[in-house]
Amino acid sequence: MSTSKFIIGCIKSFVDNYIWYVQYENQIILIDPGQSVNVINYITKNNLNLVAILLTHDHNDHVGGVDDILNLFPAPVYGNCAKSTIMVNNNQKLKLFKQVDTTVLYIPGHTNNSICFLLNINQQYHLFSGDTLFAMGCGRVFTNDYMAMFNSLNLIMNLPATTIIYPAHEYTMANIEFAKYIEPNNNLIYEREVHEQNKLKLQQITLPIILQEEVKTNQFLRFNDAELAKALSNKLNKNVEKGFDCFYNLRQLKDNY
Ligand SMILES: [Zn+2]
Q: Which of 36, 65, 99, 191 is deepest in the core (most CB within 10 A)?
C-alpha cells in the first residue's frame, strides 16, 4: 500500500513467507528477510539505500538472508536476537525514517524473544507482527508459555482499531479451514472465506489485515466470545470458559489439527 511517499510492500520468499518492506523515496527498511536473493535483486534494480533491517524473532525463515544482504548493503539490524546489531527494549522508540515513529513491543509466546514493530506513518499505525498474529490465526507457542502468548495477543488487540497488520506468512486459507471445523455454523467465517478466495483469484495476497476487521472472525482474538467458548465446549465435551481457557483449548486443538 502507498501512504503519500511511503510504500509498504512485500517480497515473497520460500513457499509462503512475506518479507515486508517500507520504502520512502530511495530508502528502504526490511522486516524479517529470511532469504536474500529476491531482496538483493529488488534493492539493486530500484537503486535503493538500505536504512535498516528489523527482526521480529530468530527463526531461520525470518533471519536467514540477513548476512548476505549485509555483505552488499551494510545497515543496522534492530532486534532482540543473535543476528541483531542493535538490541532493542520493550517500548523503545526508534527513528528509522524522518517522519516515522517506530515503537518496539515485546510479544513473547511464539519464541521467548519475539517482538513486533509498530510504525506510525502520517497518523496511521502499521504493525509488523512476525509469527505472533496471522490472518485468521496465530503462531505456534514454541515456548509452551500459553499465558505469554495470550497476553501478547491481548496487547495487539488493544492497539488502535484501524491498525494495519502485516503477518509474515500466507496461512489464511488453512486457518479458515480450521476455523470452520471449530465453528461450522459461523456465517462470518464463510463470508471471510469467499472474500479471501476472491483476492487469491485476482492474484492478490490476503494480507495485510486491519485489526478492527480481524477481531470479528479470527478465533485467536475472539477468546472473549461466548459463542466460541460454547463451540469449544461442545467439541471437547467439557466446560470451556471465555478468556484464557478459550484461547488455550483452541490453540491446543490447532496444534493437533
Ligand atoms: Zn517463527
A: 65
* pLDDT tens per residue, range 113-171: 999 999 999 999 999 999 999 999 999 999 999 999 999 999 999 999 999 999 999 99
- CA neighbor of 62 nearest in space, from 90, 81, 43: 81
CA 233–ligand 1 middle distance (angstroms): 29
Enter the DSSP assignment of 59: -
Q: Ligand 1 centroid vs 244 CA: distance in angstroms? A: 22
The label of the residue with cell 520468499 reads 13
C-alpha cell at 10: 512485500
Integer angstrom CA distances of residue 119 from 8, 100, 157: 11, 6, 16
Question: Ligand 1 centroid vs 110 CA: distance in angstroms?
Answer: 7
28 Cα–ligand 1 center, Å: 23
